[in-house]
Amino acid sequence: MPRRTSVCFVACTHGDEPIGKETMERLSLTPAAALFDYVIGNPKALAGGKRYLEADLNRSAPGRAKGKAYEERRAFELMRQFKPYRYVVDLHETRANDRMILILMKLTPRTLALASAFPVADILYWPSGKPTGPLTQFVPRGLEVESGTKTSFGKTQRKLQRVLKVFLKNLDLIPAQEKALRRKTALPKGKRFFHVYATIDPQEVTDPSKLRDFRPARSRQGERFVALLFGKFAGLTGYKMRLMDAADVARHREP
Ligand SMILES: [Zn+2]
Predict the structure, then answer these.
(1) 197 C-alpha to center of ligand 1: Å?
(2) Which protein residues have their CB within 5 A of the ion that is ligand 1?
(3) CA pair distance 92, 105, nearest whole angstrom
(4) Distance of alpha carbon 112 from its chain centroid, rounded?
(5) Fewest CB atoms less than 10 Å from the CB: which of 14, 90, 160, 207?
(6) Can you give the pTM of this predicted structure?
């Protein structure tokens, strides 16, 4: 994939999430095609209709050239391919809900400015805290877009296409945003930040089936949190988030 633009989209980092590929193929037929390149994250998993083959690609970055699992080697290869790009946007999908959110692994002027270019209000701040993790954790200006396709794949796919078009139209505004956001108290406008900070232990809630995605919940011990449910992985009830205020965002920011 020779570089033509400043943007690299990643589709199908998870092989069972077709929305990215579909959207890239459609967007490639429009004039916006001149503004981006894209890569299929996990082509082997996509071909096999699986999330991954040997390891979750989105937990395998930065990868290893001679790693044991295919995904470790693929993550390493992708990191090299991302190098010439200013922005890396990884497109994910969930069938658990119908919302569209952005996921940032770190809060920096660069990631915040990138997020500001998307017409998406809700941002999850989800630091992995591990040496291996999501692809976009290891690029300076990267984020994930997660699109919910529970009710309608087609409707969400068209929405994602519109969102990416707006992002591409906003590209030239990002550098100035980045500069403005270097002030520690500055925040992108019109966004809500949620800090994903723990998994939910099913033992600590009275009735896990009563939890609702993005709704307030309370543990037996009285801890208040907002539930984040994906409903996809067996054995995992979901995650705990808290709504961040400006001071929280400032506290978690890195240079
Ligand atoms: Zn995914």
Answers:
(1) 19
(2) 14, 17, 92
(3) 14
(4) 13
(5) 207
(6) 0.95
